[in-house]
Each structure stands twice: as C-alpha cells, then as structure tokens.
Specification:
93 residues, alpha+beta, Homing Intron 3 (I-Ppo) Encoded Endonuclease, Chain A, 2 helices, disordered N terminus
Length: 93
Amino acid sequence: MASNKETQKQGRRISGIKRTFEQPNGRKIVTLKNGKIMPLARYLVLKYQGPIPDDHEVHHNNGDCTDDRIDLSNYSVWHKDYHKEFHATYLGE
C-alpha cells in the first residue's frame, strides 16, 4: 500500500486524501477522508477543475494512465462510451 506521500506532486500535498494504493497496472486509487474510493486522476480533476458528469471518465492525454500529476493539462473528461471506444480502437485495450 502506498503512503499519502505518493500523492505529493510538485512539492504540494493533496488535501482530502486519507490513503492511496497502486493497482498492479500502476494506476493509483485513493480513499478520501469521507470514505469514497476513486482513481487519483478523477479526484484531481474534481478537486482542481470541478464536477464530472456521472457518465464521463477522465482520460490521460499523454496515454500514460500512471501519470497522475497535478498539472491538469494531462487530463480530458470524455463520455464513458467514447472513452472505451477510443481505447479499444486506438490502444487495443
């Protein structure tokens, strides 16, 4: 299990996170202080950019799902159907 220190990016600690852990594929998942569990990328977009519709997902623009930097330029919010289609068509996932 990863420590909360892994959520520090660019010298800033990300508030609201109780703990983080890394999945075998390298994606980071956070448990928030309120008990909710979600991918770190989704949390960062919610915290620093605003609400995400329920039927949308966060896409990593550089294609690296483990690159969860605070810099929001690496994230786009896409409809979940388009997101799945994109990954299946262009990334073979």
